[in-house]
Amino acid sequence: MIDPEVLSRATEAVHRATGDEVIAEMFRRSMAENLPAVAERLPDGTTFVLTGDIPAMWLRDSAAQLRPYLLLCKDDPALQDVLIGVVHRQLEYVVLDPYANAFNREPNGAGHPDDETVMTPWVWERKYEIDSLCFPLDLAYRLWRITGRADVIDERLRAAADAIIDLWTVEQDHEARSPYRFQRDEPDMLPTDTLARAGRGRLTRPTGMSWSAFRPSDDSTELGFNVPGNMFASVVLGYLQEMAAEVFADESLAARAKELKADIDDGIAQHGMVDHPEYGRIYAYEVDGAGATLLMDDANMPSLLSMPLSGYAAADDPAYVATRRLLLSAENPFYYSGTYAAGIGSPHTPPDQVWPIALAVQGLTSTSAEERQRLLELLRDTTGGTGQMHESFHVEDPANFTREWFSWANAMFCELALVHAGIR
Length: 424
Fold this sequence. Notes:
- Keywords: Hydrolase.
- By secondary structure, the protein is mainly alpha-helical.
- It has a domain at 42-316: Glycosyltransferase (Alpha/alpha barrel).
- 47% of the residues lie in helices and 10% in strands.
- The chain is built from 16 helices and 15 strands.
- The protein is globular and about 55 Å long.
């Protein structure tokens, strides 16, 4: 699905930058195999993308899996067609149910049909995550700017944008206005797979930010207002203003996006930051609007560590630098360090398990070429002999890992290699 000449040039650039044949070959193989393994062109011209080893399409993962291909698609029209097909399918799914995070290829009822929420046969899972709605807008905007093609943005985006703004506005006051409920009762289910209070989630008070039931990890939020998710929402609302004005000449849609973005930005500034005695003014991971704050980070994107990647803050922004120092320390309860690695893990996986996604994000948000090289070599050396990225691996034993093949993690490794090679 990627032009061999385009891939060959990129592989040579990675080899020159890293001086490492193994890293270059891991990059080449992942780029050549990753997308064909998960993407299927459908008769309607859209593209269905499997989330690695799960037979469903997550809005978040299907966009994140494409990030390195975006960097190489400008001179590859056939690849552009595949990526545009992904955007169009995502936008159609959003209109079907903006609260859903994962969808079936056809309305076959696969997934979690017994969850206590408003399920339809199209929906694999209906865990509402604010970031799930950010990723399709982000992908559409980037493809539009990279390719300049008029067929990237059509009426599907306008319909999805209206649905997204409506939902995010309702969820600014979840307690009083939201129709969303979610409960799950399955064998061996974790507590983070369901919501408290009969499916409403923990009590929150309005902040200006938009509430989210679940995190990018698909674990339930602890405090309701996920700060990195709202940061990403702010960024894509800015993108939406541009698309509404330049493509649709729709002043009303642009104004709605601008107003909601201002609300969210104010909410982050007023409620999403705390003064830490050692690190100074930093961002919290979650808040509830009633004074509770959670200082941590999760390996999944969007994260606090990924702020520069999502476009919310520059890598040298003082508040980001201070937050980053805390996140990459023992002050973050999900930062693990051992013989083979040190990095951010997740409550979604066992203790002392570091995520390759988080290691790649650490490199992608670093201002140091030396740190990017070190992290690429670390990722090279911690595949447990498989040559593939995993969901997570143990800091004392890389052969102890979760998910033998994780498409998103492979994509993040490839993006780090490209950026290190100067391809941005």
